[in-house]
Write a structure and sequence with these properties.
Layout (H helix, E strand, L loop, with lengths): L1 E6 L1 E2 L5 H13 L6 E3 L11 H7 L6 H13 L2 E10 L18 E8 L5 E6 L10 H4 L8 E3 L4 E6 L6 H9 L4 E5 L7 H15 L2 E5 L2 E4 L2 E2 L5 E3 L5 E4 L5 E6 L4 H8 L9
Parallel strand pairs: 1-3, 2-11, 3-4, 8-9, 9-10
Antiparallel strand pairs: 1-15, 4-5, 5-6, 7-8, 10-13, 11-12, 13-14
Helix pairs in contact: 1-3
């Protein structure tokens, strides 16, 4: 299986519409891959809190339309990263401060099939900010999301989710063999990014495909260093700090072999 992680630069000087088209072009360049992954909130920047409401869009808005076409043109499964989603006004889980007559915001990931169909969406469960920023501006998702591809089952997670192992255990119980993590991870905590990606792979005997952004979001330098880790914790590929497409070939069958050779998951008690 071939995966391409697009570690795109988020530059506030670049209009969102232009970056949307540039990302679509990068996706089309990955024709021949099986799975392409974009980072978290690449339309706005994960720390550009003031942009969330301004750039929020419905689930099937301009980013969905553009990415669906790109997935179809390239003939790839596309995890299009996440967008600030504006849900319908009668949606549940509205965060505090939602203006009257407007639906709540969510940090929502989009997954498209090679035909361009929206195959799944995932609303980020763990919001970052410690009672500010994303934690108060966006609602919390409730549902774990897995998607069966021809050769592996994906489990979807977003950035701060990486710090919560119970989410990944739940994804394993739902059949996940490959975790796809889109992120806008800050450079100052890059060591945690690498450590946690390897930990989630080892403890769940699964592949981790973690795609971050390059550039600076609202003054916060991004870590970059997108990474692919195998079920034994071996780093198969790692990007540098700048914009880059990280492409790696891996064998999804290694998950079943690892779990059979070292059946630690069978000894779970809790």
């Amino acid at each position: 299986m071939r995966a391409s992680l697009i570690q795109i630069t988020v530059d506030e000087a670049e209009p969102v519409a232009e970056r949307r088209q540039r990302a679509a072009s990068l996706v089309r360049d990955q024709a021949g891959a099986d799975l392409v992954v974009l980072p978290e909130l690449w339309t706005t920047g994960a720390f550009a809190y003031e942009e969330f409401a301004r750039e929020a869009e419905p689930l099937e808005g301009p980013t969905c339309e553009t990415m669906a076409k790109a997935a179809s043109d390239a003939g790839v499964w596309l995890h299009a990263g996440s967008i600030p989603e504006r849900a319908t006004p009668d949606g549940d889980g509205s965060p505090g401060g939602t203006p009257a007559g407007q639906g709540p915001l969510y940090n929502t990931s989009l997954l498209f099939s090679p035909s361009g169909e929206l195959a799944a969406s995932y609303r980020k469960i763990h919001r970052f900010g410690f009672d500010k920023g994303e934690a108060v501006l966006m609602g919390a998702g409730r549902d774990l999301v897995t998607v069966r591809l021809p050769t592996t089952t994906l489990g979807l997670a977003t950035c701060y989710d990486l710090r919560f192992p119970e989410l990944f255990r739940g994804l394993v119980d739902a059949g996940a063999e490959t975790f796809v993590v889109s992120a806008g991870w800050p450079e100052r905590r890059r060591a945690h990014w690498t450590l946690l990606a390897q930990a989630r792979a080892v403890e769940n005997q699964a592949f981790v495909l973690a795609c971050g952004t390059a550039g600076t979001h609202a003054g916060v330098p991004q870590a970059g260093h997108s990474i692919v880790v195998d079920p034994w914790g071996e780093v198969l590929a790692e990007a540098g700090p700048g914009e880059q497409v990280l492409t790696v070939d891996f064998d999804p069958g290694k998950v079943a072999r690892t779990r059979e050779q070292f059946p630690a998951l069978k000894d779970r008690v809790l």
